[in-house]
Amino acid sequence: MAEREERAGREAPEVSTPPEGREASEGRGPEGRRAVAVFDDSGLVVVWTRAAERLLGVHRAAILGRPVTELLTLVDLEKLTEGVTVGPVGEGNPPGRWGLWPAGPLPGGIRSGVLDAVFTQSPVGLHVLDTDLNVLRINSAAGGLRGAGREIVGRPFSEVYSRFGVGSFEDALREVLASGTPLFDQRVTGYPSVDPEREHIYTVSVFRLEDDLGRPLGLVASAVDVTARDRARDRLAVLHRVHARMGLRLDAVQCARELVRAVVPSFADVAHVALTSAELHSPDTDTTWGDTALRCVAGWPPEADEAPEVGAALDMPYGDAHRPAPYVEESRAAGPTLVVPLTLHGVLLGVAHFSRPRRPDPFEDDDMRLAADLAAHTAVCVDNARRYEHDHAVALALKGNLVRTGRTGRSALETAHRYLPTGLGGGAWFDVIPLSGNRVALAVGHIAGIGPDAMAAMVQLRSALQVLSALDLDPHDLLARLDDTTRRLGEERVAAGTGEPLTAQCVYAVHDPVTETCAIARAGRQTVLVGHSDGSWRSGLLGETTPLGGEGPPFAADEIPVPPGSTLVLLSGRADPDDPALAGLRARLAGAVPPRALSASDLHDLPLDQAAVLVARTRSLDADDVACWEVTPELTAVSEARRWAVRTLEEWGLTETAFAVELIVSELVTNAIRHGTPPIHLRIIRNPADHTVTCEISDAGTAAPHLRRARAADEGGRGIFISGELSDRWGVRWSEQGKTVWTETSYTP
Fold this sequence. Notes:
Elements: H1 2-11, H2 20-26, E1 37-39, E2 45-48, H3 50-56, H4 60-63, H5 71-74, E3 84-88, E4 98-102, H6 108-121, E5 125-129, E6 135-138, H7 140-146, H8 157-160, H9 169-179, E7 183-190, E8 200-210, E9 216-225, H10 227-245, H11 252-263, E10 270-275, E11 294-300, E12 313-314, E13 327-331, E14 335-344, E15 347-355, H12 365-403, E16 413-419, E17 428-434, E18 440-447, H13 452-469, H14 475-496, E19 504-512, E20 517-523, E21 528-531, E22 537-538, E23 556-561, E24 567-571, H15 580-589, E25 612-618, E26 626-631, H16 637-651, H17 655-675, E27 680-687, E28 692-699, H18 719-726, E29 729-735, E30 738-746
Antiparallel strand pairs: 1-2, 1-4, 3-4, 5-6, 5-9, 7-8, 8-9, 10-11, 10-15, 11-12, 13-14, 14-15, 16-25, 17-18, 18-19, 19-20, 20-23, 21-22, 21-24, 24-25, 26-27, 27-28, 28-30, 29-30
Helix pairs in contact: 10-11, 10-12, 11-12, 13-14, 16-17, 17-18
C-alpha cells in the first residue's frame, strides 16, 4: 500500500484534465447518470468537474491527480448541503474506475412545484435568457413589469426592455455569461407600460445557468421594484437638507434659496419662492390674503425658463384666498406644479412653486405631505429672520444715534472715524467732545462681551464719560472715576444675576491747541499711535494696564507734544504694529505736505475686530485768535483789564459782544484778586468755528468759586451769577499750577 501511494505521488503531476467530451464518456454510471468525479483503479482523482467543486467545496487544482484519501481531509463536512454516492462507472469505461454522484436530485414533483411557485407566486420579476440573450421564460411579476405576457418570449431582452434604457446593460449581461460572475443590484429606471406616467426604479441581479459540467446554459435575471423605497429615501433626504441648512443665517432670502436648492432635482425639476413684503413690516403685522404682493426672491436652477426672474413681481397664483394647503396646478409649460403657501399663524409669508416640466410624474400624497412639512419649517425660519431683521435694524439705529458724532466745532482739530456696530462692535463706542478753551476730548472704549448686555453697559459708561468730561478733569483722574462707575455697574449685574462682573477698555485724550499738547490716559490694551509731520510714527506710547473694573496698577498716563500736522490714531482693540492695513494707513496719513484731508475711506481696510476707530489731525491755532494779559493783584487792575478786553474785541470786530464780555471780565478779575492767589492771568480766545469767545482767568489758588444767590441788601456775591447769566457756559478746571475759571459766550458773525 505504501508503495502504491508513493508511486501515485510520483505519477500525480502527469495527470491532466481530460477534455469535456472525455469526461462525459468516462463518467457514465450504470444507470446513465453522469459522475461529477472519477477515480482510477489506483485511487487517483482523474476527473473533477465544477459540479464537484460546488458539491464538496474543493477546487479542482487541489485534488486532481491526488489520492482520493486526501479528499477526506479537504472536505468541510459542516458546509455540505447534499449527500454523495460512490460507485463503479458504467460499461465502456476502463475497469476498476469509480465515480462520485450527488445523492440524487429532488423528486420530479417537488422540483416542478418549486419552479412553478417561483414563476407564479414570487413578487420578484424573473427572466430566463438563453445564451443569445433571448427571453425564454418570465414569471407573472416580470410580465407586470413590462405590462405584457407570453408575447415577449423568444424576443431579445434589449428589445423587450428598450424603454428602460438597457442598451448599455447588454454588455454587462454578456460579461456574466462569459465569466460566470454574478451581477448584483444594478439600478434600472423607466416608465413601464402599465404605469406610463410614473418613473419606476428597479434593482436587477443576474446569475448564470450552468449544467453539471459548468457549461453556460443561459442567464436568470431578477428585478425588484424599489420605487417606493427610493422615493421615501429621497423625501427624507430633502427634508434633512432643509433642516440642516436652513436657518443658519437669519436671512429670509437665504432661507428661500436653501429651500429651492434642496428640492431640485430629486423632488422637482424647477423650484422658485416668492415672498411677501411681510419681512419689511413689524413682526406683529398681519398680512391679509387679498391684498398681498409677491416678489420672486429665489429660483433654481438659475437658467430654467419655467421660473420667473429673481426680483419679478408676481400675482397670487390662485383665486381662493383662503387655501393655505398645498395643491397641484396643471400647466402645459411647466408640467405638474405644486403650489405651497408659506403661512405661520394664519399670516401669509410667501408661496413656493415646485414643478416637473421634464418628467410626467404627478405629485402624490406623500409629496403633498413633504411639501407641507417643508413649508412649515420654511415659514418658521422666514418669520425668525423677519423678526431678527426688524430687531437688528432697531438696534443698529439706536447704536448709530448713540454713537453718531457730527462736527467737533473746533477749528484746531480735524477728525475721521469708522464704527462697526455689529459683530465684535456690540460694546464699542467713540466720542469727540468739545471742551473749554478750544480744547477737544477724544475717547474710544470697548465693553467686554457682545449682545444686549454689552450694549446697555456701553451706553451707561459712555454717558458717565461725557458727564465726567464736563468737569474738565485730568485724563488720569477721569479714568479713575470711570473705573469706580464700572465697578458699581458690575456689582449691580452680579447682584441681579444678569451677567459677570463688568470690564471695559478705554483711552481718553485731551488736545489743547494753545499749548500744542495732548494729555492721554489708557485703561487696557487699546492701540494708540501718534504720527508726526515728518512722516515718523510713535507706537507703544502708553504701557498696558488692567481694564476698567479690573484689579491692577493705576492707569497709564502721559502728556505729549502735538505740533500742528500731528496725527492721533485711537483703536478700540489691540493691533499688531506690523499689520499691513495699519502700515498702509500710516503711510497715507503721515508726512504729506500739505497734510491731506482725513476721510473715513482711509479706515475701511483696517481689521474688522477694530470696531471703533478714531483719527484726529491737529491744526495750528491762529495767534491773532488768542490774547493774554497778566493781571496785577490789586483792585485797580480791574478797570485796566476791562479796557484791554474791549480793545481786543474791537480789533476782532466783535463790538456787539464787547459789553457782555466786559462785565464778565470785570467780575472774574475781581473774584481772582479778592479770593485767588497770584500770579493771575487773563486770556481771551476767539473760536471762529463755533462763533464763541472764551474768557479764562487763572490763578494759583485751589479754592473753587461757587454760584450764590445774593440777597437784595448784600453788597457782593453776584460775580459768578452775573458771569453765568451773561455767558452760555461756565466752569472751573484744575491743573498743577492752580485753577482756571472760564466762560463761553457766543456771537453773531
